[in-house]
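Onboarding guide, step 5: your first structure request.
Type a short instruction followed by the sequence, for example:

Predict the 3D structure of this protein.
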Amino acid sequence: MNLASHYVPFLKSAPPKAIKTLGLGVVLALVLVGPAAALTVDREQVAQGGYRFEVRCGEPQTHTWTLPAAAQRVEVLEPVPGQAVTDGFGGTRVATVRDVLTRTVADGIAVDVTVVGSDAACDGGGGGAWLTTGVDFRARYHLVSDEPVLVSDDQAGMHARERPSRLTANADAGWRQLRWRSWGGASAAARGAFTARRWIPIGHTDVVQRTFSYPVAVTLSRIRVCGEGRNYYTRIRTRFLSAVPREVRRQAKPLGTASCLRAQAGG
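The system replies with structure tokens like these:
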């Protein structure tokens, strides 16, 4: 189940020698069935940046990138130990990546990249300093969070909410007395009543409007990001538990103007 995501956590900026800022790309968002009242969302993220080292023969130089404290399953894609590092013109090897280490710090997950001056940096006595070309950094990690799942009732002018006791179909009909047996998973189930106003003939010429109530089982499904960018159930299915007039059955669906909720096909 795909959820579009615009979540961009803060990443610590690289110091002045960084040749490009540490950026973040959201690669995918994978939705898993979560606990009874929330959805567990696993977002795979990619952080990237670059840094130019100033190296001397045999001297280690370390630069640190910091990932969010909540980062899980961190995998550094580049650089890798043993990787050659060239000078600023890109033609001469002047250093080697010695190691790439991760550790936990107060404000996140630190990734330490250490390079050591070698090759041309050690020629001719190796006394001078060399400015390297940018060493690219790229790390993949996951952010896992429990997020609420809502259902919209905007056709009634109501705020989106969890486990609503009522939902609106139109001005004359809606779901009432909903008692939710489950919520937050791939679907949510409830029992309640569907009420509708009907015009009932009286005598030969008169009619009167009366409200009728019919027992129903309701299922919400198809979680998507909607509205203000939160997780919503976007499909509703109504199963009547007793015989109902066709005109009432036709009303058991949200209005076409509803932004985040539609009747499930065949429901």
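Each response can be followed by summary notes, for example: The chain has two domains: 20-146, 149-263.
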